[in-house]
Specification:
Elements lengths: L1 H11 L10 H22 L20 E5 L5 E3 L2 E3 L1 H14 L5 E5 L5 H13 L5 E3 L7
Parallel strand pairs: 1-4, 4-5
Antiparallel strand pairs: 1-2, 2-3
Length: 140
């Protein structure tokens, strides 16, 4: 008890400082913001394909499901490639569990038009009606 009494005697002479120092909090927040700004484009990329060049207005979708149709006809959701039957099953699971705000179909410029249409048809049959086709701007 004598020890606790000694601490309270030392503190009696000094006023209690109850200010919050937010400088460290701001520093951490800015570092996290920079990390997210650098990693977001990397995570959004998916599988590399040559998108067709078209002048089109950008579409803003907050959390899309990205489907990629490659030139050789292979299909991927995000970065995971699937066979035709696996893709259809996985698409139905994604539609029921994740409820994406929209679909972005990234079709390679060399991909057969029919393959891209098959993917769009499967997306529609899975119950997701907000699908967009990804392109690159024609003019730099």
């Amino acid at each position: 008890m004598g020890r606790l009494g000694g601490l309270s005697r030392q503190r009696r002479g000094r006023p209690l400082n109850a200010e919050v120092n937010i400088i460290n909090l701001v520093d951490v927040m800015l570092v996290l913001l920079i990390i997210f700004m650098v990693t977001a484009p990397i995570l959004q990329g998916g599988i590399k394909v040559d998108l067709p060049k078209v002048d089109a207005a950008p579409v803003a979708i907050s959390s899309p499901l990205v489907i990629t149709v490659q030139g050789d006809g292979r299909v991927a959701i995000g970065e995971t490639r699937y066979s035709a039957t696996q893709f259809e099953m996985r698409l139905n699971i994604e539609a029921k569990t994740k409820h994406p705000d929209g679909i972005i179909v990234r079709g390679d410029a060399r991909a057969p038009y029919g393959d891209v249409l098959k993917v769009l048809d499967l997306v529609r049959r899975a119950g997701m009606d907000k699908a967009s086709l990804a392109t690159q701007p024609a003019t730099p």
